[in-house]
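We emphasize that the prediction below concerns an isolated chain of 254 residues; any contacts that depend on oligomerization or on bound cofactors are therefore not represented. The input was used exactly as deposited, without trimming of termini.
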Amino acid sequence: MSAEPTTAPVASTSTAAAAALDVPNSGAAPAPAPKVPKSARGRPTDDPDTRWSKTLSYILRHGAAKEGLQLRPDGFVRVEDLMKRPKLKGCDLETLERIVRDNAKQRFTLQAEPTGPDGADELWIRANQGHTVKVEALELKPVERAEQVPVMVHGTYYRLWPAIEEEGLKVMARNHIHCAIGLAGESGVISGMRANCDLFIFLDVAQLLADGIAIFTSTNNVVLTAGIDGVVPPKYFAKVVKKDGQVLVPPTDA
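Result of the prediction step, given as a token string:
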């Protein structure tokens, strides 16, 4: 794992941050926001920040190589290089910082590091989890005791239950199966599942660890596991419940 950065993460627009990208800070009234390019991710009807956020997620999680960007082993990419990509044309530093700061699921980390000429600060950004590309030194903390993760729940859709019940949970195109530390809206739950999930699979953390299956937590409290060769078998399902409250596992009397 790489060394910790020597400076604190950037969480809001600042003169220092602007200087890192050589962005003028004259105090003049901002120019009208440019249109989001057609190549940006998201629907044309999405608001600009949503499209910028989806584009960032795509590039930092999946498409860096296709965009001609080199991810560091810890998943970071230089912001100056990122902002030159056509999909992000018109996304300025202030917008980028706002997206990172206000993202409800805290998907990104933005920080300054003294990597420029003569030790000058440069901005670097990464996705906190969700990669389909290999990121060898992503800051994931191993879970060693079940008490560290009292709840590990994977959100999915009831229409997929027949296959999941038979085959288990799979990483699919990602590197890990993503779980949350609780259901949406509960205290401390930032990310880990989509808001429209209607089936919740609670995993037996103690049994996973006892069987040597690695579990990690990311910086935004997503719980991750690759299972056994990319699969968490159904025997590790402690409880499965539909959004309407119907319990599927363990089975109940009709």
